[in-house]
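Pair request: fold both.
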Amino acid sequence: MAASSMNIESGIEEGTITTTTHHDKASNSDHHETNKKPINWPLLLLNCGFMAIGVIGGPLLSRLYYLHGGSRKWLNTFTQSAGFPILFAPLFFLYLRHRSKPHSTHFFMEPKLFVFSAVAGIFVGLDNFLYTLGLSYVPVSTSSILFATQLAFIAVFARIIVRQKFTPFSINSVVLMTLGSVLLGLRANGDRPAGVSGEEYLLGFFLTLGSAGLIGLIYPCIELCYAKASRALNFTVVLQFQLNVAIFASLVSFIAMIVNKDFQAMQRESREYGLGQTMYIVVLVCAAVVWQFSLIGVLGVIFCIGSLFNGILSAVLLPLTEVAAVIAYHEKFTGEKGMALGLCLWGFTSYFYGEYQNNKKATASTKEENHQES
C-alpha cells in the first residue's frame, strides 16, 4: 500500500503520467494510435474505486429522494454536480506542495482547457437533468440497464472523434448491449413503479436513453480535449478540469432551480419528507458527495486509459447496481431484466476476451522483436 501511495503521489505531483501533445497537426488523425502512455495502475484502480462508489450509490440515493416525497427534478439534478467543494482540499494541498518545489512547472490548467471544461460542464448539467427526470419514472434497476447503453454511444463517437479502433469482439459487445435495452422497451409496463402511468414510464425510458447518448458524446470529447492540451497533462490538471466541469454543471441546475422556484419549495418539501427533515438534508448531501466521486472516477479513468474503457467499466458495474436496487428497494427482477442483463454480461465478456487476445498478440509480437534484436 505504501508503494501504491507513492506511485499515485508521484503521478499526480510530478506529472509523470502524461499524454502526447499535438504540436504536429498532421498527426491529429492518428491520435488513438500515437497517444500511448504508460498506465499508472494504482491511480487507475483508485479512480475505478471512485467510479464504483458513484455508479452504484448515486442512483440509489437519487431514487431514495423520490421514494419518500421528493419531487424537485432540478434539485435532484443539482446534487449530481454540487459536491465539487470536496475537491478544494486536495487541490489546495497539491498547490502547497507545488509552491514548495524550487523549479516547479505550471500548476494551473491552460486557458483552452478551461474553456473546454466549461462547455463540457454545461452539457453535463443538461445530461444530468435528462437522467434525473428519467429516473423519476423508472426503477433504478431498469435505469441502470438503459444507461449502460452509453457504451454503444461511446463506441460510435469514440470511433469518429478519437479514432478508436474496433475489433469483432468490441462490435459484438456494443450490439449485445443495445439489444438488451431494446428488450426492456418491449415490456415497458413490466416493472412500472406505482403512481407512474404507461406514458410516463415510456418517457422515462427514452429520457434515460437520451442521457446515455449525450454522455456517450461528451466522454470522447473530453478525451479529445485532454489530447489537445499544449502542455504535459497530469492528474492535478485533471482535478482542475473536473472542478470546472462540476461548477458549470451546477450553474445550469442552480439557474434552473431559481426559475423553477425550487428554493422556496425545499422548506415545505423537507417538512413533508417521509424520512424526516434531517434525513432530507442527509440524503441530498450524501447524494452530492457520492455523485462527485463518480465524476472524479470518470475523468480519471478517461485520463488513465480512455473513454471507451470508461464506458466498459460503467457497464461492468451494472450487475452490482442491479443487485443493490433489488435489495434496497425490493424492485422486481423480471424475466426481461434477466435476459437484458444476460446480454449485457455477454457483451462485457466479449469485450474483455477481445482485449485479452489483443494483449496476448502484442506481447508475443514484442517478445519476437526482442528475440530478433538480440
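--- second member of the pair ---
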Amino acid sequence: MAALMLLLGLMVVNIGITGAESVGVCYGMMGNNLPPASEVIGLYKANNIQSLRLYDPNQAALEALRGSNIEVMLGVPNSDLQSLATNPGNAHSWVQRNVLNFWPSVKFKYIAVGNEVNPVGGSSWLAQYVLPAIQNVYQAIRAQGLHDKIKVSTAVDTTLIGVSYPPSKGSFRNDVRQYLDPIIGYLVYANAPLFANVYPYFSYKGNPRDISLPYALFTSQSVQMWDNGRGYQNLFDAMMDSLYAALDSTRIGHVEVVLSESGWPSDGDFGASYDNARTYLSNLIRHVPGGTPMRSGKAIETYLFAMFDENQKNPELEKHFGVFYPNKQKKYNFNFGGERDWNIADEYNGTLALKSDM
C-alpha cells in the first residue's frame, strides 16, 4: 500500500511538471516598497512566468514588457468604465494609447474590462457600463483586425453564483441574470472567455464547520462528494464546476473560463498561514492541467494572485497574498516553469501529515 501511495504521489508530481508553464501571476502594485517595473518583469522572466495580469495600463510596466514574450491580460480599471462605455472615441483612444502603442512588442492576449463588478451591492452603479465598455473596446480592437488575437472580456467573482451545491446544479443568482446574460451573449458572439476570480480560501474561512481544510487545500485523501457519478476530492473543482454549470444553464451558448485570480493568504486571518498558502498554491499549479470532473482533461488557464505582498491593501489579510516578497525573494519553494525545485520526499511527507489532521 505504501508503495502504491508513493507511486500516486510521483504521478501527481509529473502532472505538475507538465502543466506548470500554463500558470501566470497577477502583478498588483498596491505597495510602497515594491521594486520598479523593469525589475519585476525581469523577475517574471527569471522564474519562467510566461503570463501576467496587469490591473491597469501602467506605462512603466508596459514599457518593461516590450520584447519579453510574456502574454498579458491588461485590465481596464473600474474607474474607467463609465468613460469607455459612454463614448466610443474614448475607448478607441484608450486602446490606441495602451495597446496599439505597444503592440506587437507587448504580447497582449486579453483585455479585462472591469473587475468584480456586481449589479447588487457597492459597485452596482457601475454594472450598467460594463457591457457597453466591453463592446466599445472590442470594436476598437476589431477595427485593427486584432479581435482574434486579443480577446475582450470582464472578470467576475463567485458571489454571482446563487446555487453551487451540488456542482451540476450550479446557477447564477436571479438578481444578476439581467446584468450577466447579455455579457454571456457577447462572449459567445466574440468567442471570448469569461474571466473568473475563484478563491476556495474565502469559502473555507466562511464555513469551516462544513468545509474541511484538506478539502480546501487539495489534500483530501478520498472523494468527499459525489455528484452525477463525478467524484469531488477538492473544493476548487466543486467551485469551478458550479460555475461551468451556471454558464451552461443559461442556455445562451458555450463559454470558456479563464481563472483570472486564485490564491491563499499566508497571514492575517483565520486559516491564513505560510504552510496553508504554500500547500494550496503548489497543489493548484499541479492540478489545473488536468481540468475538473465536469471538464476532465481540459487544462484551466490560471493566474495566481499575486506577485507580491502589497502593504497598502486592507484589511490585513489582503496584504499577504504574494508569491514573492517585495525584496524579490521567493516566498515559496515551487517553480512556475518546467522544473521542480522542492523536495519530493518533503512534499509527500507534508501531504501525509495533513491527512493525519483530518
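Observation on the second member. The radius of gyration is 20 Å.
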